[in-house]
Amino acid sequence: MTGLTSSQTIGPFPHEGWRWAFDATQAMRPSGAALTVEGTIYDGAGQPIDDAVLEAWAPDSAARERDQPMPAFRRVASGARGEFRFDLTAPVVRGNGEPALYVTVFARGLVTHQFTAVVLEDDAGLAHSAILQQVPEARRATLIARKKALDRYEWNVWMQGGQETVFFDYT
After folding, report:
1. Domains and CATH numbers, the chain
2. What would the pLDDT profile of 4-37 be if each residue is shown by its tens digit?
3. Residues 6 or more apart from 96 whose CB is under 8 A from it?
4. Closest by alpha carbon to 145, among 133, 154, 158?
5. Burial letters for 151-171: b for 16+ Cβ neighbours within 10 Å, e otherwise?
């Protein structure tokens, strides 16, 4: 027999069970997103995951959201086609290569949630990014959100396979 752990698969119905949590994070956020990071989450077979939950902390949004109960925190559920979207309130004037988002992924079949990060491809400091330097060069692209339009980026999450997103272990 094993002891209790802080991890458990999220099961087949997280969207309903956590509806209060999604609604709460939407209500806390000030209106007027300045930047959007959106994408799709895929399983190892390349199929969209329609019942994942992604949580993110957006460091650049924290200062503008000081009056919120959980500044810079986002929680989103993936949609029917695995789609998700994070709206950030602070204008991102970057140049230090630091992540725009630190993301935690919860999905069916995961006993332990996974940690990753997102950097923006037009960040002037990308070549000197401390977080990217920790990752083999061939895998760094999995952490980089590609610019699709003004203030709109695409970043996809692959849970397994040849395109698997880099996930970090934190102790």
Report:
1. 14-158 (2.60.130.10)
2. 455 555 555 555 566 556 555 555 555 666 889 9
3. 123, 125, 128, 129
4. 154
5. eebebbbbbeeeeebbbeeee
